[in-house]
Amino acid sequence: MKKLFLLLFCTLALSASAQNVVRTQHRAAITQDAVTTGAMTIRKPDYISISTDGGKELLIMDGTKFTMTMGGKQHVTDSRKNEQFATFHAVLKAVINNQPIPSGDDLTVTTKNGQTTVTITPTAKKRQLFTSFVLTIDAKTSAIRSLRMNGRKGDYTDYKVQ
Description:
The protein has two helices and eleven strands; from the N terminus they run H-E-E-E-E-E-E-H-E-E-E-E-E. The protein has helices at 2-15, 83-96, and strands spanning 18-26, 34-43, 47-52, 57-62, 65-70, 73-78, 107-112, 115-120, 132-138, 144-150, 156-161. The longest helix is centred in the N-terminal third of the chain and has 14 residues, at 2-15. A hairpin with a 7-residue loop joins strand 1 (18-26) and strand 2. Strands 6-5-4-3-2-1-11-10-9-8-7 form an eleven-stranded antiparallel β-sheet.
């Protein structure tokens, strides 16, 4: 079933208008970063998929459901149950639909040199997969330029849209 889903996902990603993405995965304990390429697909009102490394690494926001496959492990959460992803969902949905970015205690928004940077840092200190998200958006077109997901101990995964 997973392989069927992956095949369907890759087919849909290739048939929709996709943008090229470069994914850099940095692990503090490893000297060389892992760099792969792939595609990002966005559909209104709140669907984003990023597929890299031939579909082995996935990041999908489908409504309130977030699915991430990294290193063969799948992580699933729902923004209705996860406060950190609730803010992330609200921000991404606003960006996709060209709406104002919502305000909140756990996010900061700065605009500089034609780019808007949104940093989401959870206020709850319970164990989270990521310590923060940093989303860079073109201030004029509202196009996503990069997404960085910061992990614990200096690890991060960075997606740059080409």
